[in-house]
Amino acid sequence: MDINLISEVTAQVLAKLQEQDRSREELGIFASMEDAILAARQSYRQLKTLSLEKREALIQAIRAAAEANAMLLAEMAVEETGMGRVADKNIKNILAARKTPGTEDLKLEAWSGDHGLSIVERGPFGVIGAITPTTNPSETLINNSIGMIAAGNSVVFSPHPTATNTSRKTIELLNTAIIKAGGPANLLTAVAEPSIDAAGVMMKHPLVNMLVATGGPGVVRAVLSSGKKAIGAGAGNPPAVVDQTADIAKAAKDIVDGCSFDNNLPCIAEKEVIAVGCIADELMSYMRKAGAYQLSRQQVNDLMKIILTEKEDEKSDGCTEKPKKSYAVNKKFIGKDAGYILNKIGVAALDQVKVLLCETEADHPFVLEELMMPVLPLVQVKDVDAAIELAVKVEHGNRHTAIMHSKNVDNMTRLARAIETTIFVKNGPSYAGIGVGGEGFTTFTIAGPTGEGLTSARSFARQRRCVLVDGFSIV
Q1: Which run of H or of E encompasses 121?
Q2: 8 Å CB contact between 286 and 248
Q3: CATH code of the region 16-234+454-466
Q4: What are the φ and ψ backbone dihedral angles of 290, each rounded to 5 degrees?
């Protein structure tokens, strides 16, 4: 073969690859974390020169692009991670696009009197480093992008490595929309191959002004120990309490629907049911009609062997309720369909099975561990007092989410005060707490550990006071 021809072809291939790399970098994907941060810093400087009206136009472009590609991103996430349900992830992507607050969330406060005028506005931090999970990859990226850009920041994302392709595609789509709307390139950046090392660089980098972590306890601890302003959205173990005054049929359907939504991946989803004994059998009967498959005691034991693995004994800290033995959840089953899990214990399941219902004792590992799969333990208790007490114990002090089905306002008030969760859903499925069939805005970064609660644009902005002394008071 002609050497000159080989050289020419090689040069063309290299030129094409370099062109692709340049195109990727314009859409926020970089080979190194250092380059991603520097690009985000430059785009932040450009964003600062734009009006609030223009910033809102960029947000509207993000919303449109996210909604137009909601199904594509849902399909990519399920295929790549092997978790969740496409239809439900599509709903979550659209929810993030439509109900994440934008610049309207940045409320101005003002004081006027004899000594002049003072106003407090909300300004950006600068470059935000955001760690996102594999359970909600595209929806968290959409949600964070809207809120953080609305507050005037640029964002460096560190996605979970098991959702690399979905996260990368989401960033590229949103950056494309921003550029078409007249915004700067690289408002959203990430490394092409996310890793723990890259996340470490991001957390320590002097040009990253704020950290936001959406994930488990480990990643939240890491950002809180960084020395930077940090928001942590940690794990939950939401109990659903049902007392004797509840609409039992509705409660059963709501619980099954909430628990099965995206195969129980959302941290807000019902993880265990605590039912007053006198209505427990009726509740389980209605749950079976709503799509739950009730396992026998032996099947519960068989299931436990495959979805949990026993860990070495750990010392109790004396503060949280722990199982008699310590267990880890088998990641192979997280976010899997109920029928898939059922088949693994030798039961041929019909497609309409949404949840595996397991009646257990209060100290069962299914109750105490956050399983993140459509396996739902139910515990019977003697009365509502015992239900409230147990709900507080098994929530583990995460103060994330709780659900109650009751027509007794006093009972609902008592549980709300005792459990102190960020979200408390009454007489509805858990997902109503983030705006699906319920009122209010949505978020996929629920900051219980650091107290911001349901984060929005104002969570990612600094308060700045401007004081004009002895002037501009017209009264």
Answers
A1: strand 116-124
A2: yes
A3: 3.40.605.10
A4: -85, 0
